[in-house]
Specification:
Elements (H helix, E strand, L loop, with lengths): L2 E5 H8 L7 E5 L5 E9 L5 E8 L6 E7 L5 E7 L4 E9 L5 E8 L3 E8 L5 E7 L6 E8 L2 E8 L3 E8 L4 E3 L1
Antiparallel strand pairs: 1-2, 3-4, 4-5, 5-6, 7-8, 8-9, 9-10, 11-12, 12-13, 13-14
Length: about 170
């Protein structure tokens, strides 16, 4: 079992939180490696973290890890199918849940979007694109939905907007 150590004081300073120095390690059972790609502050002062885990004999799979204000793990969940899914960005949403964007690869890559409630239970998922090497890198919440930015093909910017139910509005 691999351990992941996060130095949260650096993360809290960059997020504008009154920082206390503390160190936490996280484990993921049956995982060879755990890779962190993004972190966001939650409304109660905790953190939501995304990235991917590598498990024996499988492709990388997206995870969310939720901590409380002192860095203790509240829950950790994985999302995806049996192919390759990676979380590149995560956002605490106004409804108290989370949205994570990244990539899924299955005969080409597409934007992969997962919306969860506050406990990490999936509300909806969306795969966006034509499998022409689309990769989602960031998400913001807007009035009535979410705007996701990434790249398609040979690093051509790709911008989409989803409503709060995950329906494609434009892009």
């Amino acid at each position: 079992m691999k351990r992941l150590v996060i130095i949260t004081s650096l993360l809290m300073v960059s997020a504008g939180i009154d920082a206390q120095t503390f160190y936490k390690s996280f484990t993921c059972s049956n995982a060879n490696n755990m890779h962190i790609k993004a972190i966001d502050r939650t409304f109660d002062g905790g953190c939501i973290i995304t990235g991917y885990v590598e498990r024996p004999s499988t492709q990388p799979i997206l995870f969310l890890l939720r901590t409380d204000a002192v860095g203790d793990t509240m829950w950790m969940k994985t999302y995806g199918r049996t192919t390759y899914e990676v979380g590149n960005s995560v956002l605490s949403t106004l409804d108290g849940g989370f949205i994570v964007v990244g990539i899924t690869i299955d005969n080409g890559s597409r934007f992969y979007v997962v919306k969860t409630d506050a406990m990490g239970d999936t509300l909806w998922t969306q795969m966006i694109g034509s499998a022409a090497d689309e990769i989602a890198y960031n998400v913001i919440e807007t009035h009535g939905g979410y705007v996701i930015v990434g790249y398609t093909g040979y690093y051509m910017p790709y911008l989409v907007k989803l409503d709060t139910s995950g329906n494609l509005l434009w892009g």
